[in-house]
Fold this sequence. Notes:
There is one protein chain. This protein has a domain at 173-267. Helices cover 77% and strands 0% of the residues. It has helices at residues 5-39, 47-63, 67-95, 106-135, 137-142, 154-165, 174-203, 210-241, 250-261, 270-298. 48% of the residues are buried.
Amino acid sequence: MAPHPVIQAIIDFTAGAIGGTACVLSGQPFDTTKVKMQTFPTMYRGFIHCFTSTFRQMGLRGLYKGTTPALIANISENAVLFLSYGLCQDAVRLMTRMDKGTELSDIQKASAGSLASIFSAMALCPTELVKCRLQAMHEMEATGKIASGQRSTVWTVVKTVLKTNGPLGFYQGLTSTIVREVPGYFCFFGAYELCRSTFAQYMGTDKEGILPLMFSGGFGGACLWLTVYPIDCVKSRIQVYSLAGRQEGFMKTVTSIIRTEGFTALYSGLTPTMIRTFPANGALFLAYEFSRKSMMEAVGA
Length: 301
């Protein structure tokens, strides 16, 4: 028996939050390296150089810089994403005149995930702006874009945004975030569901097994990042560089990067992103699916 819609929404929200926590804890050092390479591509020779330089200068804490806002960002994003995902699946059923509870095709699930990402982007943008600024604060000071010796904590970054731009300052990079999320999550959920079905069918195992869940989650994440990585690079530039003053919009930032640094600059930091995607997204879906299943069983669904 299906649980009450409110109970179902709470379960989806909670499972998404648990998945987001697992995602951050397993992949934060690679995310920090990615943001540094996206925003200052000429400072590092590659992933290993960036990773070891950060560790040598700031230790393990440097690689986990921005973990608090990253946790808030991923918990809020995935909680809203998976809550909206369930609701958007119902919306897809309504639009296609399917009975409630009918199993959707992989493409229909991908469409529901793409629609849900619009809502998650609104929750994600403010916290990701704080995270990106914390992660690239050392480089901003080293290049003279901001005065050196500033305290870099979550609270100091929040106060700076409120003082200089007001509450709407937290939504710098929102357009880039939505442009990234909509196609990205279509690929994410589509690849995840398709891979899980294919993997289970080929191996003759259950779709809920640990191996199909982790591999499919990693595969879905890889498809997402390969599709939208240049957009994410632009978003990071806008959010980090706006710390030094008003930053140009999405299209002007794209053309400026291509004109001055070349098209390949849009792919700076792709290596740590692809390394991170399998453990992080595998952990995300494993934690989400198992916690959701446990809560559904607990309410007798």
